[in-house]
Automatic annotation (TrEMBL):
<comment type="function">
    <text>Catalyzes the conversion of GTP to 2,5-diamino-6-ribosylamino-4(3H)-pyrimidinone 5'-phosphate (DARP), formate and pyrophosphate.</text>
</comment>
<dbReference type="InterPro" id="IPR000926">
    <property type="entry name" value="RibA"/>
</dbReference>
<comment type="pathway">
    <text>Cofactor biosynthesis; riboflavin biosynthesis; 5-amino-6-(D-ribitylamino)uracil from GTP: step 1/4.</text>
</comment>
<dbReference type="GO" id="GO:0005525">
    <property type="term" value="F:GTP binding"/>
</dbReference>
<feature type="active site" description="Nucleophile">
    <location>
        <position position="299"/>
    </location>
</feature>
<feature type="binding site">
    <location>
        <position position="236"/>
    </location>
    <ligand>
        <name>Zn(2+)</name>
    </ligand>
</feature>
<feature type="binding site">
    <location>
        <begin position="220"/>
        <end position="224"/>
    </location>
    <ligand>
        <name>GTP</name>
    </ligand>
</feature>
<keyword id="KW-0862">Zinc</keyword>
<feature type="domain" description="GTP cyclohydrolase II">
    <location>
        <begin position="174"/>
        <end position="339"/>
    </location>
</feature>
<feature type="binding site">
    <location>
        <position position="320"/>
    </location>
    <ligand>
        <name>GTP</name>
    </ligand>
</feature>
<dbReference type="Pfam" id="PF00925">
    <property type="entry name" value="GTP_cyclohydro2"/>
</dbReference>
<feature type="binding site">
    <location>
        <position position="325"/>
    </location>
    <ligand>
        <name>GTP</name>
    </ligand>
</feature>
<dbReference type="GO" id="GO:0005829">
    <property type="term" value="C:cytosol"/>
</dbReference>
<keyword id="KW-0686">Riboflavin biosynthesis</keyword>
<comment type="similarity">
    <text>In the C-terminal section; belongs to the GTP cyclohydrolase II family.</text>
</comment>
<feature type="binding site">
    <location>
        <position position="285"/>
    </location>
    <ligand>
        <name>GTP</name>
    </ligand>
</feature>
<dbReference type="InterPro" id="IPR036144">
    <property type="entry name" value="RibA-like_sf"/>
</dbReference>
Length: 371
């Protein structure tokens, strides 16, 4: 998986990678560019390097937002070319509300294995889940092989790339720790964990004296929210939930707050801000994420299970309004002995957001929103 991890970093830098459909990545291959960072000059480069007509590969959610129904998880729109084709037109097709110009594309077709793997890499890299893909023609195969051998471009097997979200399971590394007194809990210790690809770091905040914790350890799983946690954004209740969680755990005799690097329900800060723009245009939080090509909630809680295992915690009193967190811990072998709600204030600015969480994502918020 090391090549896959390197490919993720190259894509974040705006560089192309080659995804091969054979076991070793060779054979039938596809050139992949991230639509988010492609420039007009890259369009010509794709044609020259791959030797075949490119396609815009998108997720099912994005296709539905464009009004293009196709019974598959991902699809590709072959490009017609023409004067209207540009990096901007591709990005509009991948992320704008209206979906760009339909006259630039042929009829959609189901994405190939390599193209589906390309979208998985985009999501893992926290980029807009859209890729410019082009199958490498036989006449260009030798040139691409030389580029791979010389290290000028990375090639990864599609099967491994498609499983890039699974690469860190059970491999979380405990990196550093220190005492960090908090206003609600003077006795607190921060323990940092790093995922093997180095992209994400998570923190376990140990509140109080572990020797005095109850058998059912109070635990809060909190996804990072820069805008709410640090700047006190009124668009959400995250900052207040964070502060209330520390206080509640301290009052319960101590426990653990897991601060996970899953900004914007797992889509990353850049995409979260894009989603905010779409929300300002009238969409709710779930609709905005779908327009960008993401699912309703892209967070994964296996990392929480791994951290709790490292801390030798197998029975918890979970502070959450989200049934998905209860299920994730239970499926990971952690007994959820009790669940308690945890709320922030409902304000004119965040009421719509909270109502969408309740009605679209099943969060248990009747107590604060009313039935």
């Amino acid at each position: 998986m090391q090549q896959v991890e390197r490919a993720i970093f190259d894509l974040r830098r705006g560089l192309p990678v080659v995804v091969g459909e054979d076991a070793d990545g060779a054979g039938s291959s596809v050139m992949v560019y991230p639509v988010e960072s492609i420039a007009d000059t890259n369009l010509a480069e794709v044609l020259e390097t791959a030797g075949s007509s490119p396609a815009l590969t998108l997720t099912r959610h994005r296709m539905e937002a464009m009004g293009l129904g196709l019974n598959t998880d991902a699809a590709s729109l072959p490009l017609k070319g023409g004067d209207g084709l540009s990096a901007e037109s591709l990005y509009c097709a991948a992320a704008a509300v209206k979906g760009g110009r339909s006259d630039l594309f042929e009829e959609p077709r189901p994405a190939s294995l390599a193209e589906r793997a390309a979208l998985a890499l985009m999501r893992r890299a926290l980029l807009v889940p859209a890729a410019l893909t082009a199958r490498i023609d036989g006449s260009r195969q030798a040139a691409v092989e030389r580029a791979v051998e010389e290290g000028r471009i990375l090639r990864v097997p599609a099967r491994l790339a498609e499983r890039c979200f699974e690469s860190g399971v059970g491999m979380l590394r405990r990196v550093s720790e220190a005492d960090v007194p908090l206003s609600q809990s003077v006795r607190s210790r921060f323990v940092l964990f790093r995922e093997p690809d180095g992209l994400r770091e998570h923190v376990a905040v140990l509140i109080g004296d572990a020797n005095e914790w109850s058998r059912e350890v109070p635990v809060r799983i909190h996804s990072s929210c820069l805008t709410g946690d640090l700047f006190g954004s009124l668009r959400c209740d995250c900052g207040e939930q964070l502060q209330n969680a520390v206080q509640a755990i301290a009052e319960l005799g101590g426990g653990v707050l897991l601060y996970l690097a899953q900004e914007g329900r797992g889509i990353g800060l850049a995409n979260k801000l894009r989603a905010y723009e779409l929300q300002d245009a009238g969409l709710d939080t779930v609709e905005a994420d779908r327009v960008l090509g993401f699912g309703d909630d892209n967070r994964r809680y296996r990392v929480a299970v791994d951290i709790l295992a490292d801390l030798s915690i197998d029975r918890v009193r979970l502070l959450t309004n989200n049934p998905s967190k209860v299920r994730a811990l239970s499926e990971g072998g952690v007994e959820v002995a009790a669940r308690e709600g945890l709320y922030g204030r409902v304000t004119p600015q965040n009421r719509r957001y909270l109502k969408a969480k309740a009605s679209r994502s099943g969060h248990l918020l009747d107590e604060v929103l009313g039935k």
